[in-house]
Amino acid sequence: MKVLVLGSGAREHAIVWKFSRTLGKESLFAAPGNAGMSDLATLININPDKDNGAVVEACRQNGIDFVFVGPEIPLANGVVDELAKAGIAAFGPHREAARLESSKVFSKQFMNRNGIPTAEAREFQHEEEFRRYIETVSGKVVVKKSGLAAGKGVFESSDKAALLEFGIEVLKTDKLLVEEFLTGYEVSVFVLMDGKHYVMLPPCADFKKAGEGDTGLNTGGMGAVCPVPCITPELKSEIDSAIVKPVMAGLKKDGLSYKGLIYIGLMMTESGPKVLEFNVRFGDPETQPLLMGMPCHFEFLANAVKDQKLDELETEGAFDFTGRAAVGVVVASEGYPGPYRKDCGVTSLPVNRSDLMVFHAGTVRDEEGVLRTTGGRCFTVTGLGETLQEAADKAYAAVRELQFPGCWYRKDIGKKFFG
Ligand code: AMP
Ligand code: GLY
User: Fold this and answer.
1) In this structure, which residue's CA is closest to atom 3 in ligand 2?
2) Over the Cα atoms of the chain, what is R_g?
3) Of 2, 224, 243, 310, which is least surrounded by CB within 10 A?
4) What is the C-alpha separation between 277 and 30, in angstroms, rounded?
5) How far apart are CA 254 and CA 1, in angstroms?
6) Which among 279, 288, 290 is the best mutation to test ligand 2's pocket, defined by most ligand atoms within 8 Å of the CB?
7) Residue 356 gets which letter from DSSP?
8) Are 8 and 69 contacting, i.e. CB atoms less than 8 angstroms apart?
9) What percentage of the chain has pLDDT greater than the value 70?
10) CA 131, CA 211: separation in Å to the nearest integer?
11) How far apart are CA 289 and CA 20, in angstroms?
12) Is residue 277 in contact with ligand 1, taking CB distance under 6 Å?
């Protein structure tokens, strides 16, 4: 099998690393990839966010027979449809199903039509109607831009002026939703699908805020854990029957089934789990701890999804996390999530081991071979142990070793689950 992984983040580094357990460099490609992957895969310098044709061409040139799509933009642009036309198998939804992530209006309509528990919401297209509605709401509500916004399209407040300001800006280019504010705790549930079978993976949790104790600005995610101890087997089966089964039935009924993964962002409320959002790809940074804990080789997973044999893999224990827990800590650039410092030389990098991986995101190697930062979130340092505490201790010992000017990280990733 020759595999091409699309994307350049720490999530994609984790996916490439997982494939590399059984695939040598001659069989593994990444586009565009990053410095962390360059020992494991051949990097192809194209932009999959902008150029489906270049992806298909790269597959032809390199004899690729399976494409694993990391990020959402190529999916929303229909890269899987283009690959299918060229007879190349892929992990990820076709363009229509990708709307479950790329249009919150489409996704809310899907949930309502299929009886999937979610926050009550109203859809708006015109400013006047939106203004009139905001005058009538009381307490905290959530305003959401419908289209992709890289985590910046959601605003929660009880301040009507602030809600109006945010929403009016959104309405200049897009539709929006005004949603009931839900309280509880969040978990990320990843469900693998092969078109016939599905497997719910152990729930993960990410830490979106920049500050300790979940305070401060929103980020792309400052760390993640897998599994989440408070999701007991009973709660997992409640999530399966209340959420996952109706989602699977809805996908089938609406002709939206695909071979890949659906990420269900849940709020665990007092009246049961409710869906906050769908993503149609693996989450970042949740994937980094999830893949360290997952016993299954990715080559086997890719083949099972392609050949509709996920059920067999599950029976073999490929997704059994018993005695395995992982914690990923993001190391970010000075200033992130605001304007951040770039091009810093990495002066100390921990050595990877089977229970400790440094997944790269924003890194390049300069002409002298020095590793330099290019992004806001530069690394996810991920530890694997028998418990979350042990995994976190390993991750943090390595985080303290990792050095570049101005680097910073949250010191409490996972702590609320074991501290
Ligand atoms: P979304 O992109 O829809 O997942 O929203 C991003 C984040 O905003 C979520 O992970 C939640 O932390 C928060 N959020 C979104 N919708 C709601 C809601 N209805 N109630 C409370 N928090 C929400
Ligand atoms: N961790 C959130 C996301 O991947 O969208």
Assistant:
1) 283
2) 21
3) 2
4) 28
5) 32
6) 279
7) E
8) no
9) 100
10) 33
11) 17
12) yes
Which ligand neighbours the alpha carbon of 156 most closely? 1
Q: Which residues pair with 273 in a beta bridge?
A: 268
Expressed in angstroms and rounded, the spacing between residue 151 Cα and the centre of ligand 1 is 10
Distance CA 220, CA 281 (A): 15
Burial tier of 411 (Cβ tally within 10 Å: 0-12, 13-18, 19+): exposed
Q: What is the per-residue pLDDT for 29?
A: 98
CA distances, 181 to each of 18, 106, 138, 271, 294 (Å): 38, 19, 11, 14, 34
Q: Please give the distance, rounded to the nearest whole angstrom, from the Cα atom of residue 276 to the centre of ligand 1.
A: 6
pTM over 0.90: yes
- Average pLDDT, whole number, for the chain? 97
Q: Whose CA is nearest to atom 5 of ligand 2?
A: 283
Tokens representing 15 are 């996916």
pLDDT number for residue 253? 97
Q: Is the pLDDT of residue 289 over 80?
A: yes
Q: How many CB atoms lie within 10 A of CB 59?
A: 24
405 is written with which tokens?
């000017």
Q: Please, are residues 182 and 269 in contact by the beta-carbon 8 Å criterion? A: yes
- Write b or e for each residue in 6-18: b if 16 or more Cβ atoms lie within 10 A of its Cβ, otherwise e: bbbbbbbbbbbbb
With a CB cutoff of 8 Å and minimum separation 6, the contacts of 395 are 327, 328, 329, 356, 381, 382, 383, 413
Residue 181 Cβ < 6 Å to ligand 1: yes
151 pLDDT above the threshold of 80: no
- Decide whether any atom of ligand 1 lies within 6 Å of the 119 Cβ: yes
CA distance 395 to 408: 14
Q: Residue 218: is its pLDDT beyond 90?
A: no
- The SS3 assignment for 115 reads coil
